[in-house]
């Protein structure tokens, strides 16, 4: 009998795959900068980078030569902190407009002549994402009074704001009408008043005194 032999089972170790990230040259605008920052952070997480050197290696390998020189100049040669480097990239090449300006740009975005619905929706979403990202970076939120004053000062026309104001007025009117319908009636009917005896509760036609007079004239006994 052949002796049973144990099969060697190979052990496969799967290393975390690197998140692909295109090189950053700084000329793609705020949207390209935001995408690059998010991809670098995702690469750090996928590679399970534990040291600053590993993070810096991934970041530095995806930077164009012009961006590298700009970082070296802005950081005065201190390019060892990857978090600071990434923040400098976001500040230098990212969105610089104020929240108020981005809000006006987002609200004034309209579909262009010949533009497809898909292209318009992407452009509208980009404007909205720029606003949210800038709010997050600057920790600034817009109050509705500030938004309204912005439209007045810039002469912009916001159909949504006008519709909300009109709806608020209609709700106020309906609330007033509903309150009036539930209020107790003001015109309360007065009880019947007999003009013969000046007593309430009956009219002259059914006045007891009139009935007594009629019965007395006919010679019939009066009813008690």
UniProtKB/TrEMBL annotation:
InterPro entries (UniProt xref): Znf_CCHC (IPR001878), Znf_CCHC_sf (IPR036875)
Positions of the CCHC-type domain: 194-209
Domain of life: Eukaryota
Gene3D superfamilies named in the record: Zinc finger, CCHC-type
UniProt entry tagged with the keyword Zinc-finger: yes
UniProtKB keywords: Metal-binding, Zinc, Zinc-finger
GO molecular function: nucleic acid binding; zinc ion binding
Protein name: CCHC-type domain-containing protein
